[in-house]
Amino acid sequence: MDFELKALTLADAVAQKCDALVALVTDAFGGGADPVSRLVQDARKSGDFDTKPGKLLQAWRPAGVSATRLVLAGAGDGSGKRIHAAVQAAVSALRTKGVKRLVVCLPTDAPEGAVRAAVAAAAEASYVFVATKSKPEARELQRVTIAVPGPAADHKAAFEAARGAANGIEFARELGNLPPNLATPTRLGEEAKKLAKAHGFQCEVMGPKEVARLGMGALLGVARGSEEPLRFIVLKYQGAAASEPPVVLVGKGITFDSGGISIKPAPEMDEMKFDMGGAASVLGTFRALGDIRPALNVVGLIPSCENLPDGRALKPGDVLTSLSGQTIEVLNTDAEGRLILCDALTYAERFKPRAVIDIATLTGACVIALGAVRSGLFASDDELARALHEAGEAACDPCWRMPLDEEYGEGLKTNFADMANVAGRPAGAVTAAKFLQRFTARYPWAHLDIAGTAWKGGAAKGSTGRPVGLLVQYLLGQQSSAGAKAGSGTRRRKAAA
Ligand code: BES
Ligand code: MN
Ligand code: ZN
Questions:
Q1: Residue 322 sits in which domain range?
Q2: pTM for this structure?
């Protein structure tokens, strides 16, 4: 889908020929003498329309408006979050009406994040999955013009970043939605290679032999139960001097999680195809980096395999030796995500990273704790936690910090190895994070548990592409501080006077 940014007031926009014109109306809307403003004023007076976020009033061929359809969309206080909701509601209402060209008019008092929110919401609401349909219905919306009242140049950087992020989000959604017989570890490796070729990234895709040679016993252990060969993907984006320490993103790439020998119940097991949402978010973020090309270095690591039961599969009681040398007793083969991640987290050390962020559909317990609204955020570093939290707010892709007190790790003790892979049921999202933390002593680390946010179930079943928006926003914020030990709590020493 094409996005374009244009400087247009509401009075200019009424003359735009398009299939639909969406006017965002905030509480503070004053408006002028143009037909849309007059309509807003009248409709507010009559009570047929108000500025509550998500409220819509639709008209067909209204007088004085060149667009075929006009949609007034309430945008409340005009914050990014409200604009996101308003555009999403408007674009959803226009679906299946054959709208190809759309103009979205931002309010005059639009804040900094308005362009970003409008682009993200328009892309999100118009997405259709067609890859495995025999008679695909094409996406209707083809061109979206974001109309800003002031000079377009003021919004250009935000617009371009938003467009890149939207492409990345869509890429992640598409991969997430693919069925597990197509989205195999091999396919993820091929997608990484394709991305690398298109955008000039470095890329290495390792298979079982290379991973065995490295000594990634935990990843190898999980992969044992499947006929599909595992992959370990390394992607590198270089946007700054080679000497700049990179941010490392690590994405859980379980392309299907049956639970293994500790098998899951049948209902909704199909949704475990989304267990590669972390991996998809890393690939989606790289897709965005390729477009936006910010000035920093980023490494992406994706351990990927299936978790299946088989004669050779991991058994409860098996002990694995991880790449770090630490041994792990597998008490539940369904706690496989932490096993593949721990080896990737150890591998991350070699990049001497300024920060490592892992992204994983890690625990059902996180869904219970935070639902589908916020991803779980765990961090060993306050500055990194703050930056990620802020990025989530700005990108309408929010997260919430969870604790990592030492006491939560006590349940991982076992008589037969350095640690077990599960503790009890209480605080399951936290004990999973405590497990990962044991592999992250050498760098500032954060973990995003996206089990509740990476996909939706029910009638709207499908990947959300989260948290690509958050990650892109965070990475863009790391550019200015490149050179500083950004994301780490360590204060820089002042040079002696
Ligand atoms: N991929 C699942 C986590 C998950 C479950 C995400 C349901 C979304 C919905 C993960 O591998 C898993 O199975 N975790 C177990 C851990 C348990 C065995 C300690 C879980 O959450 O039940
Ligand atoms: Mn599992
Ligand atoms: Zn899993």
A1: 166-491
A2: 0.96
